[in-house]
C-alpha cells in the first residue's frame, strides 16, 4: 500500500460470508492521518472460514487529493486442508477430494468441483445433443414436430432479433448452435415439440440436464419438459415468462412406467418477441439402463427443492403443478390438502393449456374466462393470470 498524502480517511478490508446478503465483517482498518511515502506491506488474517469474499474499501478525507495505491494481492494458505474420504453412492468425488457432488452434476456443462474435475473426461451419453451438427436429428436420434409444414424447433447461431432469444449458443464459441422456437413465424399458442430417442422405463433414476434461454416481451409463454409413452404424457419440469438475457441451467428427474421419450415443448407468446431456446441437452448414463433407483438408507429424495414428491413416490412434479386443479401425480396427491375446490374448466384458445376456476373455502365462486398457462389461475377480472 502506498499513500503519499494524509487526506484519506480510511482503508478497510471486509469479509463477506457466502450465502448471506448483508453479513460483512471488518478484518483490517487504517484510519485517517496515516502516510506511507513508500510501498508498505500489510497483512490481513482471514482466519478459519467457509466460502468467503473480500471487499477493499477506501474512504476519502477532507481534501480532493487523497490517493492510495494498492498492488500485489497474494492469498496464502487459503485452500481447504479438509479432504473427503468417501462419497455416498449417489455422489461423485472431485479429483482434489475437496468435496462430493451429485452424480447427475457430473458432465452437465456446469462446474461444481472447485478444480473443475466434474467437467473433465466427459463422454457422450445416449440422447445427448448440442445441436452443432447440421444433421443433428440423425446424429442425436431426435425428432421435431412440424407446424404449417415447417419444423417447430429450428437450429440457429443467433436470434432473429436483439430483443428476444440468445445472441449465441450456450458455449458461446464460433460455429456452435442451439435449438430455438422462433416466434417470428410460429402462430400464437402453437407448441414447438422436440422429442428425444426412446429410453427404457425407469423411476427416480434418469437425470436430464439442459440449458435454456427465455428473454423477450412480457407475453413470453412457457417451456415444459414431459415424458411421453404411447400418448400418455407426464409433466416433469416447467418455466414460465421472461427470464432475462442469460442461459439458465435446467435439471429434472425424468421417468415413466413404460419406455418413453423426453419431450421439450415451447409455446409461443402473444408477439414475435417470445423466442425460447435450448442447448446442450444431456442425460446421465443411468437413463439408458432403466429400472428403479437404489436409495441409500437415510439419503434425501431425488426430487429437487423446486419439485413435489408424489405420496406414492412414483414421480416428482414441479411445485407449480401442485394445487392447480389438474392431477399430475398418478395418485392425485398433488391436488389434495389444497384448501380450495375446483369447480369449472374454461375452454382455452388453440394450443393453450386449460384455464381452471377455483372457489375459496367460503364457497365464493370465481368464473374463469381467460386461458392461463399451467401453474396459474385466472384473476377475477377475467383478463389476467
TrEMBL record:
Cysteine-cysteine disulfides: 107-122, 323-338
Origin: domain of life: Eukaryota
Keyword Nucleotide-binding on entry: no
Annotated PROSITE patterns: LDLRA_1, LDLRA_2, MAM_2
Organism: Ixodes scapularis (Black-legged tick)
Cross-referenced Gene3D superfamilies: 2.60.120.200, Low-density Lipoprotein Receptor (4.10.400.10)
GO cellular component: membrane
CDD domains per UniProt: LDLa, MAM
PANTHER family: APICAL ENDOSOMAL GLYCOPROTEIN PRECURSOR, RT07201P-RELATED
Pfam families: Ldl_recept_a, MAM
The protein's name: Putative mam and ldl-receptor class a domain-containing protein
Alphabetized UniProt keyword annotations: Disulfide bond, Receptor
Annotated MAM domain residues: 127-289
Stretch list, region Disordered: 151-173
Amino acid at each position: 500500500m502506498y499513500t503519499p498524502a494524509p487526506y484519506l480517511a480510511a482503508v478497510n478490508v471486509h469479509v463477506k460470508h457466502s450465502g448471506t446478503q448483508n453479513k460483512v465483517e471488518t478484518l483490517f482498518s487504517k484510519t485517517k492521518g496515516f502516510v506511507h511515502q513508500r510501498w508498505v506491506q500489510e497483512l490481513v488474517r482471514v482466519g478459519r472460514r467457509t466460502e468467503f469474499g473480500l471487499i477493499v474499501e477506501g474512504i476519502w478525507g477532507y481534501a480532493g487529493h487523497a490517493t492510495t495505491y494498492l498492488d500485489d494481492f497474494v492469498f496464502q494458505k487459503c485452500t481447504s486442508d479438509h479432504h473427503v474420504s468417501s462419497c455416498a453412492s449417489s455422489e461423485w468425488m472431485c479429483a482434489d477430494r475437496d468435496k462430493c457432488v451429485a452424480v447427475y452434476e457430473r458432465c452437465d456443462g456446469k462446474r461444481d468441483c472447485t478444480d473443475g474435475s466434474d467437467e473433465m473426461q466427459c463422454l457422450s451419453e445416449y440422447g445427448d445433443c448440442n445441436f452443432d451438427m447440421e444433421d443433428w436429428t440423425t446424429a442425436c436420434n431426435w425428432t421435431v414436430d412440424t407446424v404449417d409444414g415447417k419444423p417447430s424447433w429450428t437450429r440457429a447461431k443467433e436470434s432473429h432479433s436483439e430483443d428476444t432469444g440468445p445472441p449465441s449458443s450456450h458455449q458461446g464459441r464460433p460455429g456452435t448452435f442451439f435449438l430455438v422456437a422462433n416466434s417470428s413465424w410460429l402462430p400464437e399458442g402453437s407448441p414447438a415439440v422436440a422429442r428425444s430417442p426412446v429410453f427404457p422405463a425407469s423411476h427416480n433414476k434418469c437425470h436430464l440436464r439442459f440449458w435454456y434461454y427465455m428473454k423477450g416481451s412480457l407475453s413470453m409463454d412457457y417451456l415444459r419438459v414431459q415424458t411421453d409413452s404411447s400418448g400418455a404424457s407426464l409433466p416433469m419440469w416447467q418455466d414460465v415468462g421472461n427470464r432475462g438475457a442469460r442461459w439458465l441451467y435446467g435439471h429434472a428427474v425424468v421417468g415413466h412406467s413404460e419406455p418413453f421419450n423426453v419431450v421439450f415443448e415451447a409455446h409461443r407468446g402473444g408477439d414475435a418477441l417470445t423466442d425460447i431456446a435450448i442447448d446442450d441437452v444431456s442425460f446421465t448414463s443411468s437413463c439408458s439402463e432403466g429400472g428403479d433407483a437404489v436409495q441409500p438408507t437415510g439419503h434425501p429424495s431425488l426430487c429437487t427443492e423446486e419439485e413435489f414428491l408424489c405420496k406414492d413416490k412414483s414421480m416428482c412434479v414441479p411445485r407449480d403443478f401442485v394445487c392447480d386443479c389438474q392431477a399430475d401425480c398418478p395418485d392425485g396427491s398433488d391436488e389434495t390438502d389444497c384448501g380450495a375446490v375446483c369447480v369449472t374448466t374454461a375452454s382455452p384458445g388453440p394450443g393453450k393449456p386449460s384455464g381452471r376456476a377455483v372457489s375459496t373455502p367460503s364457497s365464493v365462486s370465481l368464473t374463469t374466462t381467460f386461458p392461463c398457462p399451467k401453474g396459474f389461475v385466472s384473476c377475477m377480472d377475467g383478463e389476467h393470470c
